[in-house]
Design goal:
The protein is α/β, with parallel strands linked by helices. It has 11 helices and 15 strands. The strands form 4 sheets. Strands 5-4-1-6-7 form a 5-stranded parallel β-sheet. The chain has a 5-stranded parallel β-sheet with strand order 9-8-13-14-15, with helices on both faces. The chain is globular and about 65 Å long.
Length: 347
């Protein structure tokens, strides 16, 4: 896999640096609710400051605003960042998506961004699969480098594209096969087996588009409606009552999946096993998370819901690598070139 040149090799002393970070964090009541992505950006920012950059200007998107939206301002994010890194050389630009040119990869907006620095560092792996002005176009206007987080993401995920220790188990959940069909086919070719859960398992059972054997649930937690307080019961997968919904993998499947995970030497997990946001339908995702964390395998977890699960369960530090990029990690494992990476000269 092609690797971009690293910020480690950039001469930043006395120079202004524009950094594209991933500060797309959840806000609650005008405050940062989860600062994980902000903390992930710190090593690159600290490196630049330690190497005497004159100024470090950080840019990022937040949410999907339709024009300027005070509720999606980056000012609370800037305050949180400053509490972690109180250096006057740091400044944070407003939400890049307030400018319509961002998502259009507009050169004019990229030029405005480029005017903020003498060189450019992309550390936003979670946005590297999007050809936007702050991730792609600006990289052609300034000397461009990969930040430490972007570099690490490519390295860790890249391991799954090469020779891996086997058995290699891929665990995939979520809603629709069509949303992940490309990476599913790629994983099916590389992994020794795939464990599938969530709504996706129903689609694969009806029509397996992968041309490869997969493991599917044998029992499920069924509910009479999609509601947190719905009536529920555990039933065999072929005995779900008419009109009921499968909202989690059942106990039998949890044990079987955990056993398979325990045999693995390499693991990739993306997507929950059910509606894990609701306690009564969270057992399957929890069982998988605990099995992955307890495994001695090289484990990589990617995708917002999977990452959220291991973090909420306090298991993130037992995973070899927790990726910050959902769509970006899937496209990379699918074999696609990421525009934000391709725009940076090779190492």
């Amino acid at each position: 896999m092609r690797l971009p040149r690293s910020v480690r090799d950039a001469d930043v002393a006395g120079r202004r640096v524009l950094v594209r970070a991933d500060l797309n964090v959840p806000l609650e009541d005008g405050q940062v609710a989860d600062g994980t992505r902000i903390e992930a950006a710190l090593p690159t920012l600290e490196l630049l400051l330690e190497r005497d950059a004159a100024e470090v200007t950080v840019c990022s998107h937040l949410g999907r605003p339709k024009g300027e939206d005070p509720k999606l301002s980056l000012r609370p994010v800037e305050e949180h960042l400053r509490s972690l890194l109180p250096d006057q050389r740091i400044r944070v630009l407003e939400n890049t998506r307030f400018n319509p040119g961002e998502t259009k990869n507009d050169v004019g907006f990229a030029q405005q961004l480029a005017a903020q620095g003498d060189l450019y560092v992309n550390d936003a792996f979670g946005s590297a699969h999007r050809a936007h002005a702050s991730t792609e176009a600006v990289a052609h206007l300034l000397p461009a480098y990969a930040g430490l987080l972007l570099e690490r993401e490519l390295s860790e995920l890249g391991k799954l594209l090469g020779e891996v220790e086997r058995p290699y188990i891929a665990i995939v959940g979520g809603l629709k096969v069509e949303d992940k069909i490309g990476v599913l086919r790629s994983l099916a070719e590389r992994a020794d087996s795939m464990l599938i859960g969530g709504k996706m398992a129903e689609e694969v059972r009806e029509r397996n588009p992968l041309d490869a054997p997969v493991d599917l649930p044998t029992d499920v937690v069924a509910a009479d409606e999609l509601a947190e307080d719905a009536e529920w019961k555990v039933v065999p997968v072929d005995a779900v009552p008419d009109g009921w919904l499968s909202l989690d993998i059942g106990p039998e499947t949890q044990v079987r999946y955990a056993e398979r995970i325990g045999e693995a030497r390499t693991i990739f997990w993306n997507g929950p096993m059910g509606v894990f946001e609701w306690e009564r339908f969270a057992a399957g995702t929890k069982a998988v998370a605990e099995a992955v964390a307890g495994s001695s395998a090289h484990s990589v977890v990617g995708g917002g819901d999977s990452v959220r699960a291991v973090q909420e369960l306090g298991l993130a530090d037992q995973i070899s690598w927790v990726s910050t990029g959902g769509g970006a990690s899937l496209e990379l494992l699918e074999g696609k070139e990421l525009p934000g990476v391709a725009a940076i000269p090779a190492a």
